[in-house]
Amino acid sequence: SKGWQVVSSAPPPLRPPSSWPGRGQGVEAARWPGAMPPEPARWLVVGGVDKGGILVRRGQAIGSAAHAERLSTGAVVSELERTEGGRLHYSLESGTGPPEGWVSLKAGEKELLVPHGPPPEPPTPAGGGLPAPPSADFAAVQHGDPPDHVRVWAVSDIHTDKKENKAWVSGIDERKYLDDVLILAGDVSNSWEELEATLRDLKSRFARVFFCAGNHDLWVRKKDGEDSVAKLRRILQLCKDLGVEVLPSEVRAASGRLLVVPLQAWHHPQWDTEPDLDEWKAPRPLHQSVSDYWLTSWPGSVSIQDGSAAKLVDAINDEVFDMEELLKFRSEQDAVLSFSHFVPRLEANPEKRYLIPPCLAKAVGSNYLRARMERLRPDVHVFGHTHFGYDLEVEGVRYVQAALATPGERQFGGSLVALDGFPVLAPQPVLVWDSREGWAPKRRSAWSDYYTRYGRRPEVTNVVPSVVADASGLAPAAKNCQGGFLAGRAPIWMFGPLEHRLMEAQKDLETLHHRLATEAAAEPKAKGAKDGDSRDEPRVVRSIAAKKLLSQGRCVFVDVREDAEAPRGGCRIAGSVALPHPAKTHALAGLPDEELLVLCERINALGGGLVVYGEDSAAEDVRVAALLLAAFFRYWPNEVQILHGGIQAWIKTRGEVEQVG
Fold this sequence. Notes:
A 6-stranded mixed beta sheet has the order 13-14-16-17-19-18. Strands 5-4-3-2-8 form a 5-stranded antiparallel beta sheet. Strands 12-11-10-20-21 form a 5-stranded mixed beta sheet, covered by helices on one side.
């Protein structure tokens, strides 16, 4: 049932609540006897990004003595006095710098401070009552007995402006989670109406919903005259009105308790410190490739590019809760879960060679977020944004991403999105904590398991998968550029959960069967080019050329004869990988995990250079097997070669063979 509520144990504030985002749910400031005068004007520091803040002087005059410490970018100050000449006497509210002093509002035409609106105060937790001021205890007081059993679930990137995603959310059981908690890690919708409707819907299905904003949530329209910071504040007000929680708080049950910490954040390019793909030329720079650059708006001179937008959004955390008090409270906790929309660590994001386009690596993470996490030291951190399933431990912290993603991503890259059966085969949020059992067991996820097995190689910048290069419009800018994958590694999707692997392999098979049926119905001249003049067709290599490739260590032979594992002739090309077609090619994705990975590592031993062969009399079967291998290994078909004349031609040219059996 939903008969339990959590409210703060803190005393009422000493001044009337403001309108953003109001203290005291259901209590208006006008009803307070002896209401105090209006709050002083507040200002946000947006200048000094490259200097560690702006200069502060001890007196009004420009020539007065300067403080040694600067007023940090992102700091918020209260106005004590302002002159017609644009000098501001301030008192520090948040950020770092002298607690009081004089600053200039502008340097020439460049704004150093911009108006910041009314003073922020924490939203009321679900259940009403007066919430804590920023320095108050984060412990919860129960109205009535807490449930015996509470579970905490997580999901991100639900994008309910897409009808398939909205249907997925609507399909969440209306009664199953009424004692449970949902972590919603951003990206609901850029539509205000859809955002509100979705939050209301989820709040009706869960006892408590925690939320942080994602980049799509902060997209704005120029005609509305609102910047993204103002929209974030309006979202926090909406959450307060709906009882959706954006403050750190305890989740309590009779069988256990958990501290949940939402963290607002924004991305900045300085977070990405791994080498760029300098051997490749991209068609567009970052600010023309990532839609956040033109679909968000920021006050004054704040921008995404220089990191000031990320710093500004991070500073809002200090406005709505006291980090020092939180750290004191955290020290008493046995279980802590933090969450954000953006990525705290590089290890929780694929290397840029796998991203479309690669510059997306500069639009996913925040150093400010990571710094908060390192101080907080959570057990688990839930994040979103990249739409990749993750369950990975780094330096004692478990990082989990459970992104619903887009319908297209679920259909064509489901294994990369999945965490076990989520989100397709198990259409519900992902369990992260159970008050009786503790943290949920680790889940299977392609990227996490891929990097656990192989580690990262960001220094390899000349090798990019052909599909990534083509989709991103990358052009080789150096002689050592190579389209393909790192040698000796299995395809990433092969690390996905078995059920998703099978689904993805079945789609590849269906696509191939459709192609073959289309070819069979076409006029002979319209069928696939057998001479390899198309990217969509395997190339043909003759035995003499194949022998040269083999001597240079530039090819891997794959024997796709029906009896490849025990050939009737008793021999195969030396060093071949046996992959009987269709018995094993069709069943490849369903092999036991370790057998599958070892086999794929052998096939991809050189990162490409596959030469597929069979019987001379079964040339079309060999072609079909080559097309299927290209699909499974994410090559373009013309990156796979077919040995002309099969093993018979190889033997005739006295190519090296090995005896089998």
